[in-house]
Amino acid sequence: MNRGDVILRPTPDCRLPVEREGAPRLIEIGFGNGDFLVDLAQKRPEALVYGVEVSHMCLEKALSRVVRLKLGNVRLLCGDARFLVRECFADDSVERIYMSFPCPWPKERHARRRVTSEGFSGVLASVLKIGGVFEMATDEGWYADEVERILGAHAALKLAERRLNFRRDLTTKYERKWLDMGKDIHHLYIEKTALWSVPRMVEGSVEDMHVRIAPAAPVDLELLDRTVTGRTGSAQGRHGEDSHWAFRGGFRAADGTLLEETICTDSGYEQKFYVKIVSKPECTLVKLDGVFAPFLTPAVRFAIEDVARRIQER
Ligand SMILES: C[S@@+](CC[C@H](N)C(=O)[O-])C[C@H]1O[C@@H](n2cnc3c(N)ncnc32)[C@H](O)[C@@H]1O
């Protein structure tokens, strides 16, 4: 077994490999050093256990244990769980989602950073199977209250149980640490009770994002770059409140095309990539460069269309 068997890099349209159809799917969000994830995978060999973690360092630590133990039923995804769980998992496909000791972000101005903020209840209600459970542990009573209030209020979810200082079979590094220090631990069990679906933001294929401009734009790459980013060497755009993008300047690629460095956000989810501008005798092609293939979110599409528009209007 090697890294490639364990780490999943979803395709730009956020598809995961189809495997072990019919096997129960379990997800752990923010698995940290991977103690719980590894124990869970060993306890449930018939299940496919997905770990979603934003920290590369944690990913590497858990990965080496998974490989060393030859755990064939673990898949790891690196990135923000708020985005990846919504975009990569289908409705009614997951049996249980675990999240232990998420960063509570206690300051009000940081509230949006909580995994459980904005829209997370809809994501759970979508991807869990009916009867499926979101299991959360926290040492912050106020945070448990908040999650209970927000998730419990969703039409397709209900609080199934709340326990104080319950000793679980499987524990995490933080759980053991807080228990040793005598802290209170709050466990919430939120159950999905009805069908629900949230819209996904990723759609279409890489080819759908190509824009062909005829007649041809100038073949001079420097002129082409200035057309996109203006005299200042950078330019920005936005669509509504949720989609923002910025062009940071162009690079001449080895194949004689122009790569426009682009950064974009969709409802706070950030991606960096290059828009490729190919000057041909008959037309100019504006498309996604395949190297840092981003997920196909609305802001990525708007950015490509914006490059094409700037070239057309020059
Ligand atoms: C306090 S640690 C808890 C780790 C582990 N669950 C435990 O109990 O020992 C919180 C973990 O959540 C991860 N995390 C924070 N925000 C995240 C997000 N949006 N998506 C995925 N993981 C996240 C952090 O990188 C960190 O590893």
Approximate strand percentage: 25-35%
Shape: elongated
The termini sit apart by 53 Å
- Which small-molecule species are bound to the chains here? S-adenosylmethionine
Q: How many E-type strands?
A: 13
Number of helices: 9
Helix content: 25-40%
State the low-pLDDT regions, or none: none
Main sheet makeup: 7 strands, mixed
Structural class: alpha/beta
Helix and strand pattern = HEHEHEHEHEHEHEEHEEEEEH
What's the rounded overall pLDDT mean?
Answer: 92
> How big is the Rg?
22 Å
Strand order of the largest sheet: 3-2-1-4-5-7-6
Describe the structure in your own words:
It is a single chain. The chain is elongated, with a radius of gyration of 22 Å. It has helices at residues 3-6, 35-43, 56-68, 81-88, 120-127, 141-152, 173-180, 221-229, 298-312; strands spanning 25-29, 48-53, 74-78, 94-100, 128-138, 157-164, 186-192, 211-213, 235-239, 243-252, 258-266, 269-279, 284-288. The strands form two sheets. Strands 3-2-1-4-5-7-6 form a seven-stranded mixed β-sheet, with helices on both faces. Strands 8-13-12-11-10-9 form a six-stranded antiparallel β-sheet. The protein is of the alpha/beta class and 314 residues long. A hairpin with a 5-residue loop joins strand 10 and strand 11. 27% of the residues lie in helices and 29% in strands. It contains nine helices and 13 strands. Bound molecules: S-adenosylmethionine (SAM). S-adenosylmethionine (SAM) is lined by residues 29-32, 52-55, 58, 80-82, 100-103, 115, 172-175.
Summary, kept brief:
By secondary structure, this protein is α/β, with parallel strands linked by helices.
